[in-house]
Amino acid sequence: MPRHPLKIGGQFQQSAQWQQPLPDGSVATVYLIADQDNLQQAARRLNFVGHGAIIVMDCHGWNLKAAAGKLCLLSIAFMDGTPQLFLIDVLQLGEQVCTLMPFFTNPNASKFTADASTHATVLAHKFGINLAGVIDAQWAYETLQKKTMVRPLEVLDWCGLAPPDFKQETLQLEGTPEVWGQRPLPQRTLTHAAQGIGLLQAAAAVVWKRLAVAFGKDVFEKVSSASRQRAEMAAAAGWACRHAGLFTAEQDYETPDKDSEMEDWLAKRFGKEPSSTSAALRARSAERPKLPETAFRSLVGEGDSPRTAAWRARLAEMNPPRIIPSRQRSASPTLHSWLERRETARAEKRKEGAAHRASSLPSRRRERDQDGGPGGVGSWMSSLVDRENSSWMVESSGWIGKKLGVSHYLITCNSR
């Protein structure tokens, strides 16, 4: 298959093909699909898989059960003479994975998976895809074993198809799920993903035999009905989170900047398939309000399930937080700053000299001339200071008499 690398953040994953020995002794052909051309070829092959054939699928990423989780790698296996394994780089392809929508939504293409609830939720939430035709190995395990399945690895253990080294590596990847986000992916991680989907394909035959023994000839209808109910309930949670606009593929995955409407027109005009995600496929997603990223990032926890995240977002829409504008407050002065201000004020006062008198008052010079000049009050008051027990009747020729508005006034001097 041709290789067309697509850069994502300075790193890229190249499409590749190799032969992978499986633990059961068979050899599978593995296709690593990391570009749009190879993805379209894979979609055509999956659409023409024979009716009634069992197709096995699995998902890899980190925190997939949470709304904030991210799907990184999708693995699909089917028989075409020999085992055929597709490893689809979802992290690099982004929304272009919607090219596989006809395959995922086809109820006649049975898809065996170890965790239908998680896969249905992720596909509905991230890409707006309703997973149909699913066969849930988790339901089979819990129904026949009468206990809850904790991790998909238990299905392989139940079927006796989990080699010790594979189990150990699976547990290590569960402890370091960020490995699935590295680009390019380490070859060891790719080999593990190929072995895992190959083992799950072998386990599908064992599970079907045990289900046939338990439910008889109606096994397919019973298993498919129970699996469909689980997938639909899980997809409803994913759709609720998608309607709220939380952590969708448009937000989580980088995609090349292309004009999808123009490519759709070219495809219809020249009879070619669109090379990017179709606008018609995008339109199948229901309209949803766009919340500010800061709003839902602060409300939704990293471990919240899609259902819980959608519930929190709905509450936030119904009861938006009140935004109280902050008012500026003057800073309280410290002792040091107060002393500086006081010294500055004192220095300015010394430069200016005495305070200015109001213009309505007479000047000091005029007062001195009237009180201290010849005939003024100051001249005769000084002569009265040393006299004892004396009183004088003064005519109102001076300034004081005029101010008082009297013709005469009495000045009395007493001895000390």
TrEMBL record:
<feature type="compositionally biased region" description="Basic and acidic residues">
    <location>
        <begin position="344"/>
        <end position="355"/>
    </location>
</feature>
<keyword id="KW-0540">Nuclease</keyword>
<protein>
    <submittedName>
        <fullName>Exonuclease 3'-5' domain-containing protein 1</fullName>
    </submittedName>
</protein>
<keyword id="KW-0378">Hydrolase</keyword>
<keyword id="KW-0269">Exonuclease</keyword>
<feature type="domain" description="3'-5' exonuclease">
    <location>
        <begin position="54"/>
        <end position="148"/>
    </location>
</feature>
<dbReference type="Pfam" id="PF01612">
    <property type="entry name" value="DNA_pol_A_exo1"/>
</dbReference>
<dbReference type="InterPro" id="IPR036397">
    <property type="entry name" value="RNaseH_sf"/>
</dbReference>
<feature type="region of interest" description="Disordered">
    <location>
        <begin position="344"/>
        <end position="382"/>
    </location>
</feature>
<dbReference type="InterPro" id="IPR012337">
    <property type="entry name" value="RNaseH-like_sf"/>
</dbReference>
<dbReference type="GO" id="GO:0004527">
    <property type="term" value="F:exonuclease activity"/>
</dbReference>
<dbReference type="InterPro" id="IPR002562">
    <property type="entry name" value="3'-5'_exonuclease_dom"/>
</dbReference>
